[in-house]
Write a structure and sequence with these properties.
This protein has about 260 residues and is mainly beta. The protein has two helices and 24 strands.
């Protein structure tokens, strides 16, 4: 029983000078010698040193909060960079640092993998039966979702030479907003399929954006202490303030139009 072995190793380490890092790493190396597949095991919260994971396949292996030292991998353990949930279709989209977008149903079963990005996907949002995603390469991709949960690309926008960090959508006007690291917030009226207009241009990188519940305001933040709010239709500046000399990386509205930022 692996859990019992790891527990015993932890107790042994407490009484000796043997490194816990090497013990866990050696156990993984031993498992890889015995089999080329490791399944349904947990190494969560373990310190792992000198483990060679290049020659084995891993299925449902939990490395949550594991700390790796001098280890080698066959696959990248990418961070989840964004998530979005579709209440109507009961689907969850998770975007990853390595460019993948994985779609899950409410039972937690993976039903689709979207591979349109070669590097980090920075934001992903569901809008009814559509999915939008933006990436480090300055593109936005839009998919349509049919009744069988198949995803088909219907639009691709090359927006900027700099990464796009945040996207938002307004159903009432069919507006798509994108904030990028070139300091610009762009807006498309997708029904007309025309080029974007720029509703504001900052001297810092845009990192976060949020649309108010009444869809009348868009809040913008970034690598600067400035918080600004614009009218989504007229692009008029409605509010501006500095937030305690801190960068603004996340924004959201409550249902009563109260804005929170972090």
């Amino acid at each position: 029983d692996l859990e019992q072995i790891l527990y015993t190793c932890d107790k042994y380490v407490e009484k000796t000078i043997v490194s816990k890092n090497f013990l866990t790493g050696n156990i993984i190396n031993l498992l890889s010698v015995c089999s080329d597949v490791i399944c349904n095991l947990s190494f969560a919260n373990k310190y792992i040193s000198n483990a060679n994971l290049e020659s084995i396949e891993m299925q449902n292996v939990d490395f949550t909060n594991a700390h790796f030292v001098n280890c080698s991998f066959k696959n990248i353990f990418g961070s989840v960079t964004a998530m979005s949930y579709n209440r109507k279709l009961e689907l969850l989209a998770t975007a990853f640092f390595n460019g993948l977008i994985i779609i899950w149903n409410k039972q937690g079963i993976q039903i689709a993998i979207l591979m349109e990005f070669d590097n980090s996907v920075n934001d992903v949002i569901f809008v009814d039966d559509r999915l939008f995603a933006c990436g480090k390469d300055g593109r936005i991709v839009e998919w349509n979702i049919d009744n069988h949960c198949n995803f088909q690309i219907i639009r691709e926008l090359t927006v900027s030479k700099e990464p796009i960090r945040a996207i938002s959508f307004i159903s009432s006007y069919n507006y798509l907003f994108a904030g990028s690291e070139d300091g610009k917030v762009r807006r498309w009226e997708l029904n007309k399929n025309i080029e974007a207009d720029i509703i504001c241009e900052k001297t810092y990188r845009i990192k976060s954006m949020a649309i108010s519940p009444d869809e009348k305001s868009v809040a913008i933040g970034g690598d600067n202490e400035e918080l600004t709010i614009y009218d989504t239709h007229s692009a008029q500046l409605l509010f501006s303030c500095n937030v305690d000399n801190r960068w603004i990386r996340c924004l959201d509205f409550y249902d009563n139009n109260t804005l929170i930022c972090g």
